[in-house]
Amino acid sequence: MNSLLKLENVESFIQQYHILHDITFDVPKGEVTVLLGRNGAGKTTTLRTIMGLNPLSKGSIKFNHEEVGNLRPYVIANKGIGYVPEDQGIFGDLTVGENMRVAIKKEDEETQKRLNWILDLFPDLKKFWNKLGGTLSGGQKQMLAIARAYVNENELLLIDEPSKGLAPIIVEKVMESIQQMKETTTIVLVEQNFLMASGIGDHFYIIDDGRTIHHGDMEELKSDKALMQKYLGIA
Ligand SMILES: Nc1ncnc2c1ncn2[C@@H]1O[C@H](COP(=O)(O)OP(=O)(O)OP(=O)(O)O)[C@@H](O)[C@H]1O
């Protein structure tokens, strides 16, 4: 397997709380890996630990075969990992255009092409280019958060619950955007919306109480009602 990101026996604490006990997974290049699990299982903490926003206490995180565990978040981002956090992380008192400009690392032709592509995909961003980020709707904020991560040439995108709180029609739009991004970028997706996760994902890992406890192909999970019921509470 051509692995782009590899976590081995990752442990992490938030203050005195032991949140991640043993997270181990492999992200193959060019595929969408979905992290599933109940509320509070540790999915967001896993992404934050990869980005260096949470300390890695034990274990290893390798990106392109290089150890990146506990590097500063901006160093990790500069290695080619984009992050769309659950709370979207946009600047409410900057306009859409300014939010994009702050995110852009390199002002070159390639970036302009990517910007044009994402603005075509999300015309609302073009329409509200001069509107303050804080005044956008939930769906528009999500589009802006995805656009900010996509505009740079990242090899890997970590996307945390992009469908959260969005109307079904917007979920479809966001899903379509991720499906298109998947053509060029490797993706790790945290997603509770099983329809979206199974529609986009190639394979999955289930996280339970800070441990990766099961993994396989998405097709296999779709047909395993008992597994879905046991660990995800759906069937
Ligand atoms: N700042 C914090 N202080 C203490 N505990 C925290 C903090 N942040 C998260 N936790 C705990 O860590 C555990 C994992 O949280 P995390 O957000 O990673 O879960 P999750 O799988 O992403 O859940 P969800 O699907 O609800 O977003 C939870 O039990 C949560 O209460």
Can you describe this structure?
It is a single chain. With 235 residues, the chain is of the alpha/beta class. It has a domain at 91-153. Helix content is 37%, strand content 27%. The protein has helices at residues 43-50, 73-78, 96-103, 109-121, 123-127, 138-150, 168-181, 194-200, 218-222, 225-232; strands at residues 3-14, 17-28, 32-36, 58-63, 66-67, 81-84, 156-160, 186-190, 203-208, 211-217. The strands form 2 sheets. A 6-stranded mixed sheet has the order 6-7-8-3-9-10, sandwiched between helices. Strands 2-1-4-5 form a 4-stranded antiparallel sheet, with helices on one face. α7 links the parallel β7 (156-160) and β8. The longest helix is centred in the last third of the chain and has 14 residues, at 168-181. Adenosine-5'-triphosphate (ATP) is lined by residues 14-15, 17, 19, 37, 39-45, 192. Residues 5-234 form the ABC transporter domain.
Total number of helices: 10
Strand ordering within the main sheet: 6-7-8-3-9-10
Percent of residues in helices comes to 25-40%
Order of helices and strands: EEEHEEHEHHHHEHEHEEHH
Q: Number of DSSP strands?
A: 10
**Radius of gyration from CA coordinates:** 17 Å
Structural class, judged by helices and strands?
Answer: alpha/beta
Biggest β-sheet, characterized? 6 strands, mixed
- Tertiary shape: globular
Low-confidence stretches: none
Q: What proportion of the residues form beta strands (DSSP E)?
A: 25-35%
Spell out which ligands are present: adenosine-5'-triphosphate
Distance separating the two termini = 31 Å
Write down the overall mean pLDDT. 91
